[in-house]
Amino acid sequence: MKCPKCHAPMESVLHHGQTVHRCGGCRGLWFGENQLTLLASKKHRHMLDIGDETLGQAFNDCHDSTCPSCQTTRLQRRPVSGQEYLMVDECPQCQGHFLDAGEFLQYQRPGVFGQLKAAYARLVA
Question: Please, which domain of life does this record's source organism belong to (predicted)?
Answer without folding.
Answer: Bacteria
